[in-house]
């Protein structure tokens, strides 16, 4: 069996199927969640995706949902794909947010393939001191 120059060192007879690889990779879209004194910050590496291919929503019950789709590149007339290794398909991640967040102030920024979602926290009410009077 001849190997293409793009598969040097790989044995296509034992390589995982394209479908299985894509399902595993899309299902495992990794997201970091960091809490600061001011906000909860979520970061997702989404290389090759534009902001139009990603959706950020806050559902009822304070559930942050990050979803999107990476489309498979298709060969056009006169072209031939020799190897398709980039992951494609849909992804969806959901996070239940704590009660102390301002869901109406969520912000999302996509820069260099990294999505950053910032969920501000509510300020803790400060304790009010009550003057005690003597009678």
UniProtKB/TrEMBL annotation:
InterPro entries found in the cross-reference section: A-crystallin/Hsp20_dom, HSP20-like_chaperone, Small_HSP
Keyword list, A-Z: Stress response
Database matches in Gene3D superfamilies: 2.60.40.790
Ranges for domain SHSP: 22-135
A Pfam family the protein falls into: HSP20
Superkingdom of the source species: Eukaryota
Similarity field: Belongs to the small heat shock protein (HSP20) family.
Stated name of the protein: SHSP domain-containing protein
Organism: Ceratopteris richardii (Triangle waterfern)
Lineage: Eukaryota, Viridiplantae, Streptophyta, Embryophyta, Tracheophyta
């Amino acid at each position: 069996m001849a190997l293409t120059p793009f598969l040097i060192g790989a044995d296509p007879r034992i390589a995982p199927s394209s479908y299985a690889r894509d399902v595993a990779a899309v299902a495992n879209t990794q997201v970091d969640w960091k809490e600061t004194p001011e906000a909860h910050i979520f970061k997702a590496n989404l290389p090759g995706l534009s902001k139009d291919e990603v959706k950020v929503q806050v559902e009822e019950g304070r559930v942050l949902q990050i979803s999107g789709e990476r489309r498979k590149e298709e060969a056009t007339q006169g072209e031939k794909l020799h190897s398709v290794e980039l992951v494609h398909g849909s992804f969806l991640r959901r996070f239940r947010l704590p009660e102390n967040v301002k869901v109406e102030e969520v912000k999302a920024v996509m820069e260099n393939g990294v999505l950053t979602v910032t969920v501000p926290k509510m300020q803790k009410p400060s304790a009010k001191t009550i003057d005690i009077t003597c009678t």
